[in-house]
Amino acid sequence: MSMIAAFYGGKSILITGATGFMGKVLMEKLLRTSPNLKVIYILVRPKAGQTTQQRVLQMLNSKLFEKVKEVCPNVHEKIRAIYADLNQNDFAISKEDMQELLSCTDIIFHCAATVRFDDPLRHAVQLNVTATQQLLLMASQMPKLEAFIHISTAFSNCNLKHIDEVIYPCPVEPKQLIDSMEWLDDAIIDEITPKLIGDRPNTYTYTKALGEMVVHQESGNLNIAIIRPSIVGATWQEPFPGWVDNLNGPNGLIIAAGKGFLRSIRAAPKAVADVIPVDTVVNLMLAVGWYTAVHRPKSTLIYHCISGNLNPCNWGKMGIQLLATFEKVPFERAFRRPNADFTTNAITNQYWNAVSHRAPAIIYDFYLRLTGRKPRMTKLMNRLLRTVSMLEYFVNRSWEWSTYNTEMLMAELSPEDQRVFNFDVRQLNWLEYIENYVLGVKKYLLKEDMAGVPEAKQHLRRLRNIHYLFNTALFLIAWRLLIARSQIARNVWFFIVSFCYKFLSYFRASSTLKV
After folding, report:
1. Which pTM was predicted?
2. Using CA atoms, how far apart are residues 315 and 174, in angstroms rounded to an integer?
3. Which of 129, 177, 171, 122 is nearest to 150 (CA)?
4. 127: closest CA among 237, 49, 206?
5. Are 82 and 51 a contacting pair, CB within 8 Å?
6. In what order do the strands lie in the sheet with 107-110?
7. Do the beta carbons of residue 101 and residue 14 sit within 8 Å?
8. Contacting residues for 40 by C-beta, under 8 A, at least 6 apart
9. How many CB atoms within 10 Å of residue 462?
């Protein structure tokens, strides 16, 4: 019997960010391994004309929860959706719901955050810092609370090369920044943002570091742990390989590569692609929740959930494996789904030229105008290139994270818990994982039919030929202009032509003599 699974039996668990990618996988695992838990509280707000309950029903009807329904048929009764808005004071939770949360909650998993790299600082502070502060205030009023698990990111201190399992101070106190957000206008905030984030690449990593400081400063007597996952990817094993439902992280990269939008990104081939499967992160979260509640460490422990230290895969290797998978299982035609939202780029280890990407987009939009359709490729390509530029910081660097606490926890688990809540990334086969990842994006995110693979292969070859043809034409035009303007270029050209002519003449003469 799993001690961790038994621990969550009868518990009332609060999950923020439950409708997000990681939150859904966390709920699925909890309900599948501990079907006798009392209730899972999730903070939800109405969206796109749906009530909170409708959003929950839509989520539970997805393929992700099929196995849960087999072991927990009354799954709908186990989830209690509470209206909340993390942008509001006290999350705009009603008095009745707040009283229930304060009096009943045993465990908190704080997963909610904005993960947008280009989020304005005001919004990033509200969701990643202020909301964390407010949730800690709520937690301090929960008499039954046993553990508070805060999900941060391994890149919260990406300005450092080596990152230990400690909370690093920020130059600005979180409380001061939170207070200043109330009276500074947006123009001033945007102006001072570069100075505030310093040598961090974006507001996301900066505010996640501030969120950790808030946890450290306002933890009080709470049993708290912080988990820092790296780039969270599709499921490895549970509930099945390759499940994914959003365009964040590597998912957009895989889509854009499979659709043939872009064939390269500027990346360091030997830099470590520190991707971690979402089910690995969730298993660690549940193990940490158990350990924190049962063993009650004297200080806040930080756990790095990363792959680079234990089972590294660099971007060059990942790019090769991605392209190999695309050859076997290509995606459908790019413009078959006009509502698709592609935001990222393909991965190889070559340096790319934005001109060679934008020019075909302009030509394709011209063709769409001629055929009476709305042009969209140029706008899409501009968004894609902008997103790629934000990712370049991470695909051209490698980091070293200490993992003493994670390894300690693994040693504390029984063999049964190590099997049921496996977070040992050393067992991960990257080739198999990437292939399942691509298949998962195709099946679960794009909803593509596997029967369309032959047509997709033909489309991919066509796109590749167009790409090569355009680059060849671009090179010849540039070379022709260079020859017209430079005597040195003309001399080089004539030398090359003369050399080739002499070589062919020599080869022809040699062949004649042999005959």
Report:
1. 0.83
2. 35
3. 129
4. 206
5. no
6. 79-83, 39-44, 12-16, 107-110, 147-151, 224-229, 301-305
7. yes
8. 12, 13, 14, 15, 18, 27, 30, 31, 78, 79, 80
9. 12
* Domain residue ranges in the chain: 457-512
Please tell me the total number of residues recorded for the chain in this structure.
Answer: 515
- Residue 397 token pair: 């660097």
Phi, psi of 183 (to 5 degrees): -120, -15
Single-letter residue type at 253: L
- Mean local confidence (pLDDT), 411-434: 95
Residue 213 one-letter amino acid: M
Minimum mean pLDDT range among 13-27, 271-285, 401-415, 485-499: 485-499
Residues 108 and 225: their CA atoms lie apart, in Å, by: 11
User: At residue 346, what is the residue type?
Assistant: A
d(CA 323, CA 253): 12
The DSSP string of 55-104 is HHHHHHTSGGGHHHHHH-TTHHHHEEEEE--TTSGGGG--HHHHHHHHHH
What CA–CA distance (Å, rounded) separates 437 from 275? 12
- 236-292 tens-digit pLDDT: 999 999 999 888 877 877 877 777 676 677 888 899 999 999 999 999 999 999 999
Tokens of 248: 């964040």
Structure tokens at 231: 């780039």
Tokens of 494: 């004539």
pLDDT at residue 488, rounded to an integer? 79
